[in-house]
């Protein structure tokens, strides 16, 4: 059986240990059914990678391959594939229930794949899929915000952690939808990044929200998209959400949330987990392809921009360990991308 390069793990170790992520040779898979076999050209890292890799007392009998942001070239197609041909340039996030894309070749269901933006190279494209899907689903599917800007005139959204990976594209999506976008950041460089990527205003998430919002003339907001520390911000979010407003978070909690805080305002709360559709094979699973197609079109029209902030070359274990360390530091702006194999 043909072999391929990959980066993976068999033990869950602190990222500073060399064996936490290793260079490997593993069998190259074959495309069947709805699967595409993609020759991976670039990848990106996300918090899901560091969470799944986090230290625990477990040894895997076979290497675990992480990575859920890929841009590459279709190498083979399964017998049921209809929308792609070998040679197509594609980008996608994949499914958390299958091996990730930190390998030279990767299998992915065509229904969650789209042709990558023509105006971007592989690295810039690899920065976008997981975060774009998370942001688009959170804003349009979970918060129920219409895509038509005319329907959102006078409405506002607060995006907590606007300079992170998801925040960097969420600010663009929300602004394109016609909302007044208020981002949060706590450093001068993250404030500038959020403003450059679509936020109208930026407030400090280390300070009380209401006085800062009142200074902007918006003591309450219609929507909140929480991308960091749901526990920490819960009471503040409940305070500044408008009556009948909606809150969505992507960050799991350590303690139960007191939903009673929302009752008096008839406000609602929803979770967004980008992997839900692929994990459960939902009837609308192909919506992720449609979202990525829309994002690619908006990128090529110059309306959206890549959120890549740093590129490491080539793809190997040492560079992936470096990227994981940066994510775990909590100070990453945008997305860290890795491109090209040795």
Topology, element by element:
Elements: E1 3-12, E2 22-27, E3 35-44, H1 47-53, E4 56-65, E5 70-77, E6 89-92, E7 105-109, E8 113-115, H2 122-126, H3 129-142, E9 156-160, H4 165-176, E10 180-185, H5 188-196, E11 201-204, H6 209-215, E12 221-226, H7 230-240, E13 241-249, H8 260-263, E14 268-271, H9 276-280, H10 287-300, E15 308-312, H11 317-329, E16 335-339
Parallel strand pairs: 9-10, 9-12, 10-11, 12-13, 13-14, 15-16
Antiparallel strand pairs: 1-2, 1-4, 3-5, 3-7, 3-16, 5-6, 6-8
Structural notes for this entry:
The two termini are 21 Å apart. The protein has helices at 47-53, 122-126, 129-142, 165-176, 188-196, 209-215, 230-240, 260-263, 276-280, 287-300, 317-329, and strands spanning 3-12, 22-27, 35-44, 56-65, 70-77, 89-92, 105-109, 113-115, 156-160, 180-185, 201-204, 221-226, 241-249, 268-271, 308-312, 335-339. It is 30% helix and 29% strand. The protein folds into two domains: 3-128 and 277-339, Medium-chain alcohol dehydrogenases, catalytic domain (Quinone Oxidoreductase, Chain A, domain 1), CATH 3.90.180; 132-271, NAD(P)-binding Rossmann-like Domain (Rossmann fold, 3-Layer(aba) Sandwich). α5 (188-196) links the parallel β10 and β11 (201-204). The chain is built from eleven helices and 16 strands. α3 crosses α4 (165-176) and α3 (129-142) crosses α10. The strands form three sheets. Strands 3, 5, 6, 7, 8, 15 and 16 form a seven-stranded mixed beta sheet that branches. The chain has a six-stranded parallel beta sheet with strand order 11-10-9-12-13-14, sandwiched between helices. The model has no long low-confidence stretch (mean pLDDT 97). It is an alpha/beta fold.
């Amino acid at each position: 059986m043909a072999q391929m390069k990959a980066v993976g793990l068999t033990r869950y170790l602190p990222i500073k240990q060399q064996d936490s992520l290793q260079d490997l040779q593993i069998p190259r898979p074959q495309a069947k059914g709805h699967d595409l076999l993609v020759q991976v050209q670039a990848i990106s890292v996300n918090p899901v990678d560091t969470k799944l890799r986090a230290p625990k007392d477990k040894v895997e009998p076979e290497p675990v391959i992480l990575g859920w942001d890929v841009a590459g070239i279709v190498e083979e197609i399964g017998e049921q594939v209809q929308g792609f041909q070998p040679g197509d340039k594609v980008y996608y996030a994949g499914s958390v229930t299958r091996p990730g894309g930190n390998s030279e070749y990767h299998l992915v269901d065509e229904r969650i794949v789209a042709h990558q933006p023509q105006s971007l190279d592989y690295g810039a494209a690899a920065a976008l899929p997981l975060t774009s899907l998370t942001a688009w689903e959170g804003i349009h599917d979970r918060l129920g915000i219409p895509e038509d800007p005319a329907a959102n005139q006078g409405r506002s959204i607060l995006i907590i952690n606007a300079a992170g990976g998801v925040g960097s594209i969420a600010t663009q999506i929300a602004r394109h939808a016609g909302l007044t976008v208020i981002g949060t950041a706590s450093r001068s460089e993250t404030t500038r990044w959020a403003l450059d990527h679509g936020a109208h205003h930026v407030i400090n998430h280390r300070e009380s929200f209401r006085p800062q919002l009142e200074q902007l003339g918006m003591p309450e907001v219609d929507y909140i998209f929480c991308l960091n520390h749901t526990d920490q911000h819960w009471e503040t979010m409940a305070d500044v959400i408008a009556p009948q407003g909606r809150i969505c978070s992507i960050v799991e909690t350590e303690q139960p949330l007191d939903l009673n805080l929302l009752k008096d305002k008839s406000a609602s709360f929803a979770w967004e987990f980008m992997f839900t559709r692929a994990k459960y094979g939902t009837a609308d699973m192909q919506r992720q392809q449609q979202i990525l197609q829309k994002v690619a079109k908006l990128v090529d029209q110059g309306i959206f921009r890549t959120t890549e902030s740093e590129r490491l070359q080539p793809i190997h274990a040492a560079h992936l360990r470096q990227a994981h360390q940066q994510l775990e530091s909590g100070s990453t702006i945008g997305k860290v991308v890795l491109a090209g194999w040795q």
